[in-house]
Amino acid sequence: MSKGIFDGLKVADFTWAAAGPIVTKQLSDNGATVVKVESFKHPDSIRLGGPFIDDKPGINRSGFFADFHSSKLGIGVDMNHADAMTIIRPMIEWADIVAESFRPGIMKKWGLDYESLRKINPRIIMLSSSLYGADGPWSRHPGYGAQGAALAGIQHMTGWPDRLPAVPKGAYSDSVSPRYALAALMAALIHREKTGEGQHVELSQIEATTQLVSPQLLDLQITGANAQRSGNRKEGSILHGVYPCAGTEHWIALEVEDEKQWVSLKRILGDGSDLDRARAEGADILDAHVGELTVAFDAAELMQACAEAGVPAGVAYCGSDLLSDPILEARNHFWPLSHAEMGTLKYNGPAYRFDKTPSALRSAAPRLGEHTDQVLTDYLGFTSNDLTRFRESGLLL
């Protein structure tokens, strides 16, 4: 098998929750040696969040944690121990990248701010990702992705005009900001290849998420129009929404952008004149009438008919649909990985394909401290006697 595109890259991963680990997962799944440094007295918070395998909570049983940590190694250390730098300093010397996603000030408290790191390893690249950014009046405030989405202007625009704002699924900014963080990190690596210089990459997850509302911000400045909640409506489309299909909780997303697509959809649904009348009466009437027609169709068959006619359509899949989807299966999207406590589960693979350096998910997410001995002896040069001494002092799990 060809080596991953990041083969040989060494990463000390202090990230936690989602925004940081999603970035380092892209490195580990593409060949980098990523060591998750986890304080066993305060483990990654999403280890404590479900869903848990078989609905049995446990520090090593979280599917939330598992999906962001494939192909990584994990060590358990007490980061507040007086001798923590005995282990961490050689790791900084070993690493190419240090990634962290704590509230600003935490890494400095441990003596691991960028100025301290570059004295140990001048070529080090540090990625710092936090909700509000490293400076500014709110930099030390606590918060998660739901607050990040609100502060980036997303939640004001999601939902229906006559209802309260609707929170998008999950910690929304945590899913957006890693895309920008990864691009910035790659730019820093390219810069180092050219100059030999490391540098500090600092990212605000709110500022990253604000990029998604750029069209609305431009419109506001030009026209004075402040974007409002519009439910499933899309300006400029004849039809845009999610409609019921045959069965229980089966749905299809449909969009009609022009008259040609409108004619095709009328032919498929078989109710042309009534659909034209509903369209003339307004979007609410049209949505209701389309839903009355789509409920007679199998969702997958309707999607296929729309696809053949050039009408944008997509079945609204649930999780079990995704795991059995023939298209994802044909593209080998899911990777079965064996975990000591959770068994063999399917993990999300990368959404991209390298033809010369294919990605490979090499292992399931690490149990807390699973690779401590391996990392300290194989990579950092400590002996088994050292490990015994560290454990007796409470430094290691």
From TrEMBL:
One of its GO terms (molecular function) is transferase activity. InterPro entries: CoA-transferase_III, CoA-Trfase_fam_III, CoA-Trfase_III_dom3_sf, CoA-Trfase_III_dom_1_sf. Keywords: Transferase. The keyword Transferase applies. Coiled coil: none annotated. PANTHER family: L-CARNITINE COA-TRANSFERASE (PTHR48228:SF6), SUCCINYL-COA--D-CITRAMALATE COA-TRANSFERASE (PTHR48228). This is CoA transferase. It comes from Ciceribacter naphthalenivorans.
